Give the backbone structure.
Amino acid sequence: MSTPLSSESHASSETALHAFMEHVIAQSPGEPEFHQAVHEAAACVMPVVMATPAYRNAKVLERMIVPDRVLMFRVTWVDDHGQIQVNRGYRVQMNDAIGPYKGGLRFHPSVTLGTLKFLAFEQVFKNSLTTLSMGGAKGGSNFDPHGRSDGEVMRFCQAFMSELYAHIGPDIDVPAGDIGVGGREIGFLFGQYKKLTHRFNGVLTGKGFDWGGSNIRPEATGYGAVYFAQEMMATRGQLLAGKIAAVSGSGNVAQYTVEKLNELGAKVVTLSDSDGTIVDMDGINAEKLAWVMELKNVRRGRIREYIERFKNATFLEGRRPWSVPCQLAFPSATQNELDGKDAKQLVENGCTCISEGANMPSTPDAIDVFIKAKVLYAPGKAANAGGVAVSGLEMTQNAGVMHWERKRVDDTLRGIMKSIHENCVKHGSENGFVNYVRGANIAGFIKVADAMVQQGVY
Ligand code: NDP
């Protein structure tokens, strides 16, 4: 049967895209985030696919939207009250054309197979952009760590790994953290992997420094998003210093985004969580950030507590940061957290640079607003690739049984973000404007597509 992009097709890119998306939606019903992610990428790469018979003959795009395999399993564990709890566990191994599967684990009640398929699909492009050899994957569970004791989190992680361990390994699939999975969870997962396999190896990244972790891995995603913003601003002869920044979220990515922005002389005025946003027009300086890190990472509290400690700050209940005037925006919480209305308000308020720490935080409407306004807008697959890049460096260090110094890792991260930026400019420039969405998608796609063509039909 002929598929939407069959080799004999002479359809225009637009017609082909329409037919292709109908095919994707019919094949994966009920997965709107996955459709959204595929549509964004396919809209950018379709002209390349239509102009390249080798890609069409090899059905590269049709293959890229179907995971190599999906693991789905039950996770059964006992809570502190002796009650049995049942969760769902997943690992989506999306594409290993350019290296072993690599991508985070997300523990959040909203996790579904569709969410993880969108994240795994994005990961394939992102990992390709890093210049390192890593395929794409994503996994997780609908388990909610909020309000759970350390013992409960440990028992859940052990039960999760008891299913996953047989399908991962340092040259097979190397999971890492994501929402709800930080150093504590990676520790529990690694302990159980070792117990089951009798192997101490680089099966996970984001490990503790003394047992195989890399310098700068906790910082990498946030730092990378700021380095990317720095590169974008430089194309217009501007610096981050002196600019006002809005950051959303208050987890790992948000925290280190604030740290690097402070270091570079910007003033961060917001942080948020799912309850609302704190606004501190005096700036969230290093001392206040240290307090937030203790609140979120040790006491596991809520961001609203900030206004009790810092009296000049205010709390916007149930609101996101995007109504607060700023020149720089760093969406660093979750997908679809910034819609068309938010984007208009940001642009009207003078925001000229948006660098996504989160995965797909801007809705398609929001992206349209940014592109039409010709502001500097970097999608997550480019701007937040620093996290997985340093995970790749952690794998390199593990393979060589060595630790690199902080400066070496940070310099390498900075170099990788610079080269991702250059690649986006190369593939995304149009009439003096850089469309980073197009640049990131085309650059990420070509490397994977070429590898798939060269490796034949498998
Ligand atoms: P954390 O779990 O450390 O923090 C997540 C933050 O986002 C919390 O403040 C959380 O608030 C908030 N959040 C989560 N879900 C929602 C929601 N539905 N609405 C509003 N706020 C929400 O996760 P990370 O910082 O690691 O991840 C943040 C984003 O960055 C995600 O999109 C992730 O995929 C992406 N990312 C992370 C990487 C990493 O290295 N960690 C690498 C690349 C991308 P609350 O506590 O209320 O849930």
Notes: Residues 406-428 form the longest helix (23 residues). The mean pLDDT is 97.
